[in-house]
Write a structure and sequence with these properties.
Length: about 425
């Protein structure tokens, strides 16, 4: 690690300004201008590699299998895929088991595309209101004591309004995923650089072409923030911030800065365009709520869901519940439009600020039924209905931090479709 000089800081700032100007003059525009993301379009099928169903032996006990390989692969009979739309791709929640999302199926949300960073040239600059401004290489970060933490990451815009009945889970709540993240506690780095007592905020800046940056209260840095370099036991994937990203458990995804390159400490927020023009909720009365960091409790039923077709009889409902405020204490399901609720079983482990799988065994009699789910966290917060959100925020409020109760309608023939409820 090396100290930062005033001349070096000025030179770096000039380079950043020049790069930003070049980006603006290139004629690029922020690609997502509508309130809600555009409708997803199915990605082209990816051809299977290796053995296919046609080459599988009729009796595998009679054929010698292939030897070990350097890199494992999924069975050719299993082909989960993310579906992409605009500048996002959704986690295929319906296709997953347990609570850990495979790294290659973790949702994406980018502002300047996927940054490709050379780990040998990677540098994390920490400066501002600190006693010892420093720059850390990747190897230097890895010399600090490391920690691992299982938690979810979720885009604050993880809800699409007024979608059609023929919509799978990831079309309206696919911008969430869960991983085990490994790195150094940010609080450890704070002690290393000597953050000054009057520092109240820090700017976290990414190394992508948009120089995406958010202001974060210093209390989060001292709590559970992680500067992570590994995901699910391996190096973070490029789409998820390789080689280093910030993990803020329970806070909206945009604050979990990918391709982290700079932390600057100050006594007030930096008011970047990403927390003024974006990621701010404007209510019908004209007031705006900014810095809505914590993600409230929510749930979703993943099975059965569209495009399933079920038969009368016993059905195990499955789903996920999570909260940025702590542990999930209760997940419930309703079969009468929310007039009454039945407590579901929570599958261990029930971790704080993490996806928790729930299950409920139910006997369907073949008549048209609506199945809803709702979550309650350890603070006592109960997931609201769409009507409660509208009453609190207004019809015209922005797309962020929407966590309404959702569900599925099972038609008499067994077809499962999304249970629509107009946002109006």
């Amino acid at each position: 690690m090396k100290k930062v000089t005033r001349r070096g800081l000025l030179a770096g700032a000039a380079a950043a300004v020049a790069g930003g100007a070049a980006w603006l003059w290139s004629g690029l525009r922020f690609p997502w201008t509508s309130e809600d993301p555009p409708p997803p379009t199915s990605a082209a099928p990816v051809p299977a590699t290796g053995p296919t169903a046609r080459t599988v032996p009729e009796d595998p006990t009679k054929v010698l299998g292939p030897p070990p390989s350097e890199l494992g692969s999924r069975s050719p009979f299993e082909a989960p895929r993310r579906e992409t739309w605009g500048i996002s791709s959704g986690t295929p929640l319906k296709d997953l088991q347990g609570t850990i999302t495979p790294s290659d199926l973790h949702f994406e949300r980018h502002h300047g595309g996927v940054a490709m960073v050379d780990p040998d040239r990677y540098a994390l600059q920490i400066h501002g209101m600190v006693d010892r401004p420093m720059i850390f290489s990747l190897d230097e970060l890895k010399r600090f004591p490391s920690v691992s933490r299982i938690c979810f990451v979720e885009c604050s815009g993880n809800f699409r309004r007024n979608i059609p009945e023929e919509s799978p889970v990831h079309h309206f709540t696919g911008l969430t995923a869960q991983s085990e993240w490994t790195g150094v506690r940010l609080s450890t780095l704070l002690r290393e650089v000597g953050v000054q007592p009057d520092a109240r905020w820090f700017l976290a800046e990414g190394g992508d072409s948009s120089l995406f940056a958010r202001s974060i209260p210093i209390e989060k840095a001292r709590d559970d923030a992680i500067v992570a370099w590994a995901q699910n036991g391996e190096a973070i994937r490029p789409e998820n911030g390789y080689p280093v990203r910030l993990i803020l458990p329970g806070w909206e995804g945009s604050t979990n800065i990918k391709w982290l390159r700079r932390l600057k400490f100050a006594d007030e927020p930096f008011m970047t365009r990403w927390e003024t023009a974006r990621y701010t909720v404007v209510f019908d009365d004209g007031l705006a709520r900014k810095f809505m960091f914590v993600l409230d409790a929510r749930s979703v039923i993943t099975s059965p869901s569209y495009p399933d077709r079920v038969q009368p009889g016993w059905i195990e409902l499955q789903g996920l519940a999570w909260s940025g405020r702590g542990r999930i204490t209760r997940a419930e399901v309703s079969f009468d439009e929310g007039a009454s609720w039945n407590e579901a079983d929570l599958q261990d482990p029930v971790l704080p600020k993490a996806h928790t799988r729930f299950r409920y065994l139910w006997r369907w009699d073949g008549s048209e039924t609506t199945v809803l789910s709702r979550a309650t966290d350890e603070t006592g917060y109960v997931q609201p209905t769409i009507r409660q959100l509208i009453d609190a925020r207004g019809v015209g409020s922005g797309p962020y931090h929407m966590n309404p109760i959702t569900g599925w309608r099972i038609r008499p023939g067994g077809q499962v479709v999304f249970r629509t409820e107009a946002w109006a």
